[in-house]
Automatic annotation (TrEMBL):
Residue ranges constituting the GFO/IDH/MocA-like oxidoreductase domain according to the UniProt record: 145-276
Protein name listed in UniProt: Oxidoreductase domain protein
Domain Gfo/Idh/MocA-like oxidoreductase N-terminal: 29-137
Gene3D superfamilies, sorted: Dihydrodipicolinate Reductase, domain 2, NAD(P)-binding Rossmann-like Domain
Length: 378
């Protein structure tokens, strides 16, 4: 196997769920070695955390700018090759831009930036840099989501007529009803989170899943968002009707106040020959539906699945795989791209997915603000 890729981490220290997810994912296929990091804004906290997870502290830096400056002093064969950005949303753009301008590959949490304008600037920066950029829409890494994509591409359900994507959570319900609490979380602060909370955080996952699995682009949408309280500046619930570049139409439903819901991402695609359904909380089951045949259930690891699905399967049939494995599949695809190896274009979401996501977020907010009108996406 080739020498491990040198990985830098920005954010994700302490008890950060996203930090654990990315670190474990980077280790799963033995392609990366964490080489340097800025885990926390405070250097002592970063050093303490590095010791806690047992990585060398000689390249734990006091801040992002110092990481760039010091890494560039090193020979190319020693410096960090890929940097993962796991910080709050408002830091994604400046960090990603500077990394690209200095020749680093980037793995970035979503949303890629806080505005569509920033996303387009970042796209132009990447075109000049010529490096690899991945956005971690994690759910595209599940084997049965990849199977869904390949079946649709092969015409298994015919021409798509209807799409229904739902992403329901209830985590913000205990926070939103108390003024002090809703004023103190960064997710509800436009300065740190951007113009949207619910659509920007989870609605964009549903949007991405639709375009990833169907291969079609959403051309226009009409949204209705819920802020619940007049002093709350960020949406916490919303619905968007969507139209494609064909006769197909659909709906995106997202909520962070769906009491009792955990991580209820579901996508259903209906064609004129059949339908497909996948649920994130039961990720090993892809349901194949038909008018004239019994319900079929596809599961990962079996020879009847596509090459893309099997490539993302690490265990024999009957052994559940989950969110860590899904993220690991994205890291695996990036590793192949960084090494110049052949890879399937479905192995990791790219800058284009990030730009499309910000276009969706901005259009959703604009549609609502203009009185629930149809807005065309670029």
């Amino acid at each position: 196997m080739s020498k491990k890729i040198r990985l830098g981490i920005l954010g994700g220290g302490g008890d950060s769920l996203i930090g654990v997810l990315h670190r474990v994912a980077s280790f799963i296929n033995d392609n990366y070695q964490i080489t340097g990091a800025v885990f926390n804004p405070n250097l002592e906290d970063s050093l303490s955390f590095a010791k806690q997870i047992d990585i060398p502290t000689n390249r734990i830096y006091k801040d992002f700018d110092t990481l760039i400056e010091e890494e560039l002093k090193l020979p190319a064969e020693e410096r960090i090759q890929v940097c993962s950005i796991l910080t709050p949303n408002f830091l994604h753009f400046p960090m990603a831009k500077k990394l690209l301008e200095n020749g680093f590959h980037v793995i970035c949490e979503k949303p890629m930036t806080t505005t569509y304008e920033e996303a387009k600037i970042l796209q132009a920066t990447l075109e000049k840099a010529g490096t690899i950029f991945a956005v971690t829409h994690t759910y595209t890494g599940y084997p049965m989501v990849r199977q869904m994509r390949e079946m649709i591409k092969a015409g298994a359900i015919g021409d798509i007529q209807k799409v229904d994507a739902q992403y329901y959570q209830g985590w913000i319900n205990p926070i939103i009803h108390e003024k002090d609490k809703r004023a103190s979380t960064w997710r509800l602060d436009p300065e740190k989170s951007g113009i949207s909370c619910c659509m920007g955080d989870i609605g964009v996952h549903a949007f991405n899943m639709i375009e990833y699995t169907t291969g079609m682009q959403i051309k226009s949408l009409l949204s209705d968002l819920n802020y619940l309280y007049d002093d709350n500046k960020m949406d916490i619930d919303g619905t968007a009707l969507v139209r494609f570049n064909s006769n197909a139409k659909g709906i995106i439903r997202a909520s962070q106040i769906a009491t009792g819901e955990e991580n209820g991402l579901t996508i259903k695609i209906y064609g004129n020959k059949g339908g497909l359904k996948w649920e994130q909380e039961n990720p090993n089951y892809l349901y194949v539906m038909s008018d004239d045949k019994p319900l079929q259930v596809y599961k990962p690891g079996h020879a009847y699945n596509s090459d893309l699905s099997l490539d993302g399967t690490k265990l024999p049939p009957g052994h559940p795989e989950g969110i860590f494995d899904a993220m690991a599949n994205i890291y695996l695809g990036v590793a192949r791209a960084v090494r110049g190896e052949k890879y399937n274009d479905g192995e990791f979401p790219t800058m284009l997915d990030g730009v499309r996501g910000l276009n969706f977020i901005q259009s959703s907010v604009t549609s609502h603000q203009k009185g629930n009108v149809w807005i065309d996406l670029d």
